[in-house]
Amino acid sequence: MLSRLAQNLFWAGRYIERAESTSRLINATSLLLLDMPRATAFDWRALIEIVGAEDLFAQRYPDDSEASVMRFLVADRLHPSSIASCLANARENLRSARDLVPREVWEDINGLHLFIADEGQHIDSRLARSRVMDHVVRNARHMAGLIESGMSRDAAYDMFMLGVQIERADMTTRIIDVRSADLLDEQISELRPYQSVLWISVLKSLSAFQMYRRHVRVRVNGAGVVRFLLADRAFPRSVRFCIEAAAGHLARLPSASQCIAAIDDAVQRLEETDPGNLTGYRLSEFLDRMQIELNTIGETIQTRYFQQ
Amino acid sequence: MNDLWRDYRSPGFFDEAFDDSGQPRRAAEALVRYLGEFGRDELETRRAAADLAIKSMGITFTVYSDAGMIDRAWPFDILPRTIPKHEWDRVREGLQQRVTALNMFVADLYADQRIVADGVFPREVLAQSVNFRPECVGMRPPGDIWAHICGSDLVRDGAGDIYVLEDNLRVPSGVSYMVENRLVSKRVFPELFAQHHILPVDDYASELLDSLNALSPRQDVTPNVVVLTPGVFNSAFFEHVWLAGQMGAELVQGSDLFVDSDDCVYARKIDGPQRVDVIYRRVDDAFIDPEVFRADSMLGTPGLMRAWRAGNVAIANAPGAGVADDKVVYAFVPEIIRYYLDQDAKLANVPSWLCMKDDHRAHVLDNLDSLVVKPANESGGYGMLIGPRSSATERKQFADLIQRNPRNYIAQPTLALSTVPTLIEGSARPRHVDLRPFIVSRPNDDAFVTMGGLTRVALREGSLVVNSSQGGGSKDTWIVADEGL
What we know:
The complex is a heterodimer. Chain A is mostly helical. Chain A has helices spanning 3-35, 45-50, 54-60, 66-75, 83-97, 103-119, 126-150, 155-183, 195-205, 209-216, 222-231, 239-252, 257-272, 280-306. Chain A contains 14 helices and no strands. In chain A, helix 8 (155-183) runs antiparallel to helix 9 (195-205). Among the domains of chain B are: 218-312, Rossmann fold (3-Layer(aba) Sandwich); 351-414, Dna Ligase, domain 1 (2-Layer Sandwich), CATH 3.30.1490.270. Chain B has helices spanning 3-6, 26-36, 40-57, 85-109, 114-117, 123-127, 175-188, 190-195, 204-213, 237-247, 304-309, 327-341, 358-366, 392-404; strands at residues 60-65, 68-73, 76-84, 149-156, 162-168, 225-228, 250-252, 257-259, 265-269, 272-276, 278-281, 314-316, 348-349, 353-354, 371-375, 385-386, 409-413, 419-424, 427-436, 438-440, 448-449, 454-458, 472-480. In chain B, strands 3-23-22-19-18 form a 5-stranded mixed sheet. The longest helix of chain B is centred in the N-terminal third of the chain and has 25 residues, at 85-109. The mean pLDDT of chain B is 92.
C-alpha cells in the first residue's frame, strides 16, 4: 500500500471518530445541564478545553455563551476540529482512498458532510441540536458497521482502524483530564453535591455508563470512573483497550516494532500505576504523561509509515 | 412504427440510423424495429434504469464551479449508435496506418530529423512547436514507440464520409466511459445483445496492460506498472481510478514516487520503497519532472526524466510525444504518411488552411465567417472561433490573433456533422456526434484499435459542442457484425 493512501485512511479514521465523539460529548453535556441547579453558571468552556482550542476560540468569538461554543464546535470551518471540519477532512482523505473502503462509506461521508454543512447552521435550539448530533453519531456508527462487516482485513483496514483507536484513546484522555480537574478540585464546592451526576455525565459522553454499571458494580465515583476509562481491559473506549487494539492492528502491518514498543510503554505505565488511586495534581500529571505517550505513538506511526 | 420514430428527420445532415428516404440503415435496422415496439412508458423505464445504473456504478466526471469541484453523473443517452463492421474495419486500418506514421514522425524528430532535411516538414514549424521537447532528443524508447495511447477524433460530413478531426497524443481520455457505457446499455437493453452480434469493447484494459508490460526494462520479473494521476482535482480522475483498477496497477501521484541515486524510480509504500518499471502517466509532460520541465510543478517527480533517459523506467506516452499533437502538424499528416510509409492516407484529413502560409492566411481572413479557426495546441474545444456563429467583434479579435501569430492557427470548413437519434424528452431527435477511438501502439505488433470508441453527442439542438464539460453527452457505440444482417 502507498504511504499516502495509508496516511489518508489513518486520518479518515481519526476524523470520523473525532466527529462522532464530539457529537456525543455535546449531547451528554447538554443533558447534564438539565440536572444542574439553575444557579450554577455552567461552564461551556470546558468543551473548548477538551478539544484543546482555547486560543482559537478566544480569537474568534466575543463571549463564551452556549451559542458561541456550539457554533465553534459544530459548524465553524475555521476551527479544524469542528464537526463540520472533521467531516470535510474525512471526506477529503477518503476521496483518493475511496476505492479501498466499501462504496457506501464514501456515500455516507458525502451525505454527512452535506448534512452538517446545512443542518450545522440550525443548532441554537437544544432540541434541534440534539437531533443533529444524533444523526452524526448514527451515521458514524453506520460507517463503522460497514467497515467492520464489509472490509477485508488488509493494510487498508488496519490503517483506518489504527486512526480510530488512537483518536478514541486521545479523546478519552482529554475528557478525563478536563473533567477531573473540575470535579476533583476541592475548591469548587458548589459542584460537590453534584459529583455523582457529573461523573455519570463523563461516562455518558463516552457511552460508558451502562458498561460501567455492569462491570464496576459500585456507586459511580471519581476513582472508579477514572480507573474504568483509563485502564479497563474490556471496555472499548478505555485508553488501555484502544491502544492495545491499535497494537493489534500494527502487528499485522509491516515492520511495526517501534510503534508497538511505543504502545507497550504506555500500557506499562497503566499497569504500574492504578490511576484510580491518584487525585489532584498527581492525576493531572499522570494524564499529561499519558497524553505525551499517545503523541509519541502517533508520531512514531507518522514517521514509520507516512514519511518515507 | 410508434411515436419514437414517427417524426424523426434530420434534413441536410447524414443521419447514422436512417437514410435520406427515412428507411433505417442496415446496421441500425434491427435496433430501430425493436425500439419501435416500445411505448413511451417502456422507453422511460429504460432511461430511468440507465440513470440508476450510472448512479449506482458511480460513473462520474468532475467539473469545476464557484462552489468547488463536483462529481457529476456521466451524461449518457440510451439510444446506441451503430456502425457496420465492414466500415469499421476500414477505419481501423486507417487509424493503424496513421498512428504508425505519427510514431515514426516523432521518433524521427527526436533523432535525425530526416523529414525536415528532406524538406517535407518545414523547419520553422518545428522551431515554433511548443510541444517539441529538446530534452528528449537522442532518446530511443522501446520499439521506437512514443505515442503508446492515441485518441483520434473522427467525424462524418454531410456525405457520410469519415474524417479525422484531430489526434490526441498526450493524455487522451474517455476510454473508461466507452467501456462503462457498454455495461450500462447491457443492463438497459439485455435482450438486444442476445439478438444482435455487437462486438465487445471490454478488452481494452487487458490490451493496454499487455502493451505496458512489454515496455518494462526488467523483462525477468513481473513488471510493476503504475498509473500516474495529477490527483483528485483532475477532471478525468474517475478514469485514472478506473484504469488502475482494471489493470490491477497502483494509482500514484508524483509525490508517491522518487528517483534514487541509482536513477531508478521507486514508489513509497508502507513496506518500503518498491521499484517501478512502467508509468502510464496522465500528467502532461510539462509537469512530470520539475528538474527538467516546469520547476513549479507540484504534480511531478524530480529525476523522472533522468531515470527515463537511463532506460530504467518506461513512460507512456513518452515525454515529447505531444509534438505530433498539434493542429499544424495535423495538416501535414497525409504527407507524413506518404513520407514514412509510401502510402496514401486511408483516412482523410479535414481540409485545413495553415495560417502560416500567405495564400492560406489570406483565404482564412477573407472567410472567417464560414470557417472554424483553431489554435495549434489547445484541447477541449477552448480558444476556437466557430465562424458561422461568431460576432463581428470575435472575428476581428481572431483576425488580430492570426496576424500576430500565424503559426499558431489553422482553419477548417464548418462541417455538417452527422446526426444520431437521441432521446430528448421522450422523443427521438437528431443530434450531432463525433467518435473517439483509442489506438494502443506496441513494440513488434500491429496497433490495437478499440472496437468503435466513445461517441460524444451534442445534446442541444443544432449544437456541435460535444465536450462533456460543455453540455455534451455520450452514447454506446455498436460495431455490428455484417453477417448477422
